[in-house]
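Limitations
The structure tokens in this dataset are predictions for the assembled complex, not deposited experimental models. Users should treat interface geometry with appropriate caution, especially where small molecules or nucleic acid strands are included. An illustrative entry is reproduced here so readers can see what is and is not provided.
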Amino acid sequence: MADALTGDGPVALGWRQYRLERRMFWRNPSAAFFNFLLPLLFLGGGGAILAGNQHELNRLIPAIAAMSVMSTTFTALAYNVVFLRERGVLKRIRGTPLPTGSYFGGVAANAVTNTALQIAIVVLAGKLIFGIGWPRDWAELIVFVLVGVVCLTALGVAFAHAIPNFESTAAYVNAVFLPVVFISFYVFDSAGAPGFLRQIAEALPLKPLIDGLYGAIVTGSGLGDHLDALAVIALWGVFGLFFAVRGFSWEQSRT
Amino acid sequence: MSEATPAIEVHALSKRYGDFEAVRGIDISVRRGEVFGLLGPNGAGKTTTVEILEGYRARSGGEVSVLGQDPEKRSRALRRRIGIVLQSGGIYGHITPREALRHWAGFYPKPRDVEEVLALAGLQEKADVRSRRLSGGQLRRLDFALALVGDPELIFLDEPTTGFDPEARRSAWETVRKLRDLGKTILLTTHYLDEAQELADRVAIVKDGRILAIGPPRELGVGASHYRIAYRDRDGRFVERQTDDPTALLAELTAAALARGEKLEELSVGRPTLEDVYLELTADADAAPAAAKRAAVGEAGDG
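Predicted assembly:
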């Protein structure tokens, strides 16, 4: 196996790209903050406000976990792809012998690593600080995180196609990220949410992801109970993958 | 490294974007070890042509061979043998030149030594500085270094010094000369006449997607335009005359001056420069085709 990681084979080059992406990630304080610290601040803040209310804490942890998946994949990929595209890094890489699969393998693995770290932190915090114990259903946790990662990574890349320049990336991303998070959190938390809001939230990928993670971490109701949620996320994933590949541009948008 | 086959061969290349024809039938043949310049104003089709050769764009018509391969197929084998300096190619803001070169070196089967490339590009002192803290000239040197680290046979330079101050241009030219001395084949685009004249063994002058003239810069200058004879007359006015026959005009002027017992102050004779050719060829007048014909005389049999 070690041999596959040296030389200039596709796997070795993907591994090298992954290590470069990791190094660049930690060197960029704002990326590290938005992709990493923000959900943890929500966790800390929410946890402090809801301290003592175990019912609410039980709902907070899976919601933050799902939000972490979205910020480490959708938000991070949309930012990165637009930045690298507009700066001309993608075009430069396209002119080298680096295989496309190795490049995107490294980029995606970087996002998955961030997701895994975040989920680990949230789960640990749930156990050690917020008293909700270990996840009840590890298999369901892994399945939902994996499907969520694939779906939201693809959607992030696809969404990058719609963003015309780097300066407007924050506006575009937040115009999607914040409403989706608010609607999904609200509908998940409040039984009295208006019907039309509930329908919107159920049709978006984040609320089903929260449901799945809630089942996995808190109730242990099992994967079979959330197949419809899984199907919604998977459909968004197919949609995202199609548009991520179809409209992909290696070059700066012409102005 | 067979000397027989050209590094680049282009025949009747065309490229259209919708109704717009960016390239309208270009023929060029670049020999191994040659520095070939595509010279022309912005929008002439230079970058489109180069990006077709680099494998970034599909052509609409014609035949293209780069190191014996069709670049449109984007084979990894071909990309291992070429180096590309884009008109505007960026790099991660938080990477240092040394790290970037090490990473890029890993893409190629037989890369050059990273330290050697840093030295060649003049980046030793900035090797460990993050790229976001480098100046425009230093970033351009990093572009050269990244294009070079895979030890390519053929290097594309698209407008390598646009936006540079004179000193940075000189230093970039020095790098290009070093690459030529290493035996690399170089295809360069520029809209600077002096750059083409300084660097290129042969130049193709491009406008509106067509080649107006092709040949060594010196020959293009001789074939197409006029010598300039300049002096200050007795009233101190500066006079400039153009001629195809400087010997006769000089004899006439000096004879007349001597007969009047005067001197021709600040007398100078200027060889026609590429600029003269370029202005003549790119003028939208009817004179252009005639000039192109004259310029092409020295280059019969090319392509």
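Some entries come with short summary sentences. For this one: Chain A has one domain: 2-246.
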